[in-house]
Amino acid sequence: MKISRRGALALLGMGAAAPIGAQAEAATGQAVQFLHGVASGDPLQDRVILWTRATPADPAKPAPNSLVEVALDPTFKSLVKAVATPVAADRDWTVKADVAGLKPGTDYYYRFRIGGVTSPVGRTRTLPAGPTQDVVLAVASCSLYPAGYFNAYGAIARLDRVDAVLHLGDYIYEYGAAPGDYGMSSPTAAKRTPQPPHEIITLADYRTRHALYKADPQLQAAHARAPWIVVWDDHETANDSWTGGAENHNPDKGEGDWAIRKAAALKAYYEWMPIREPVAGGLPETINRSFRFGDLASLMMIETRLTARDRPIDYDAQTLPTVDGKPDFAHFMKVWRDPSRKLLGERQEQWLAAELDRSVKAGEAWQVLGNQIVMARVCAPNLPAVMGEKAWAEFFAKLPDYAKQPVAQSAALSAVDVPVNLDSWDGYPVQRERVYDMFKAARARPVVLAGDSHSFWANELWDDGRKSRVAVEFGTTGITSPGFEDILVGAPLGAALVQRNPEVKYANSAAKGFVLLTLTRTEAKAQMMAVSTIHAEDYTVSALKTFVATAGDGGAGLAALREV
């Protein structure tokens, strides 16, 4: 299907309200402008969060209250709700309403009215209740603004059907706009410069970066198309974040206290995202929550960054020392398999076990995990063996200097059964096994969804010792963020990963796009939807691969993944 950027943006008109550009022009001199679109999220059977941002003409003056209208049709002749919501500077003029009293499994249209100005129209949908035939979800992750156009978001906006959009994190990135900053070597970077142009640290910085993203027309169109269910990964705060800090946070270089930076990032996130507010008295980091799609599936969104994650280990001298000139992998294994190292934390583990048990006992066909990071066991691929030593040597010589050290390390590790990425579930193997034990104890049929890696994945997850298949995993590639195959151009990386790793059935880090997941009572089908380019405004979208998971023998567990 060929899609033009103009065609995608036409979706923003969606009803009585004018498109963004026309509306902004018409609103000059009015009390507010709607420059950042509308969005909905966290749908339940009877309610949904509705969001917008009302940019004031004069921030020094109080803004009038917002009225959000909800109807069964885009012309608002069948109006069902009108809810007043305050507009205030202390929330950066963002507006969020938790609209209740809705019917399950129903499409609604909504708009905001403030000071005589009307927002664009959005479309949302409540979750179904009772018998449910099927559910269609778009799964997205990793949108680096300067790296390319958000064509994949435009493609999501144009889907014939999507019941909800799952965003698994890295919705924004924290880096600046210096020549060496992440993404600034892209051919689109000159047209898509991050704002503010420095690394974001303060509340004002994070708000400005969220505003930049929400001003993107294709992202606005995707938000206006369907409700979103979101979770953060690391870049919403800083790269490789954990409870006590982040790889990209350095107090010694003027970046301040981590707790202050994290609090600023989370405040901006809750302001700017269509997500339900934290429970009164609860920590904002506690973002884990579940959604029930009738009797078909429960979606359990877990948090793997800020609530309990211990600092990731690395292949450094402390974790992998050298003894008699050789890497001491025995020491590495001891540190790596330390049972005290955690990713979820005890409270979230207990919550997840209870949700799995509840879902299975309710007769739901699927237990879906909305999860930030890849769960499969993935060892480093042996590219020299796959390519041949001569071809590998020629290929390696042509790599950019910044890539040679990590690529050489990966090649060296390929001879040993250790993970290639210790910032994923692979860095917390004992914690992962506890989750697998939960799957088995509940007799669940889990579908794990993963972001973060900038790669498509179709994986079968097995417990330690490969005694039983416990889940399937579908990973979504980046919307724009570069994958390993953008660096290792021409290398058979996907084939090498499949050859090296029994759990990996498909891997592709060159494509950009999203996963379209369709659930029925008998199968979970994942289509790897790829856009043809992120460096031009016109593009096509197609399904690269499609994989299906079905029930195992006797209806329990899962059969082997199959490509269709």
Automatic annotation (TrEMBL):
PROSITE patterns the UniProt entry points to: TAT (PS51318)
Alphabetized UniProt keyword annotations: Signal
Xref: Gene3D superfamilies: PhoD-like phosphatase, Purple acid phosphatase-like, N-terminal
Range of residues in the leader sequence: 1-24
Domain Phospholipase D N-terminal: residue ranges: 36-126
Entries under Pfam families matching the protein: PhoD, PhoD_N
CDD domains in the cross-refs: MPP_PhoD (cd07389)
Chain ranges of the PhoD-like phosphatase metallophosphatase domain: 137-527
Source species, domain of life: Bacteria
UniProt name for this protein: Alkaline phosphatase
Lineage: Bacteria, Pseudomonadati, Pseudomonadota, Alphaproteobacteria, Caulobacterales
